[in-house]
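Hey team,

Filing this mostly as a record. A colleague (T.K.) asked me to run one chain through the structure pipeline before their review meeting, and I want the input and output archived in the tracker in case anyone asks later how it was produced. No errors, nothing strange. Just documentation.

Input sequence:
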Amino acid sequence: ILILTLAMLMWTPLPMPNSLANLNLSILFILAISSLTVYTILGSGWASNSKYALIGSLRAVAQTISYEVSLALIILSSIFLAGGFSLTAFNSAQQQMWLILPIWPMTLMWYVSTLAETNRAPFDLTEGESELVSGFNVEYAGGPFALFFLAEYANILLMNSLSTILFLGASSLNNLELTALLMIKTSILSLCFLW
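Output structure:
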């Protein structure tokens, strides 16, 4: 339940077009909450009372922590171009040109880091079939298993929404609403992500 709560809590500062919580440091809020998910993964692997789940959770924690550093550094470099820590500053900074054009190498590194952060292929080391069965959630079935995967896919959609806001500019196009344009771009990114 805690991992899904944290996954849903990260959606609050996203401007779609109005955010639920208009924070001045919304990017730091998202980074802080995403760092807290490490504790839920470690706790769930330990609480399942299985060696396989514990080893899978330790691998997931090590991978998540290592790629959060690269995500934070990439976000920091894009904050310099946007001129602020709020996500609405990114929308106003990209009125003339999307940030994907001047910092396309950072965008590629961001894409690879988000793949690793959300445990998608080829970075799904936590679910190594031959060694670890199914990762840290091997002992969970039914409701808890569904909550883990709801949280995982909520994080995937959040990372793609954040990628759209940071690099693809969620500005208006031909009187199309901001939310619709943001969701179209996010859906295209999610298709590439899950392919």
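Quick notes for T.K.: The mean pLDDT is 86. The CA atoms of residues 127 and 134 lie 5 Å apart.
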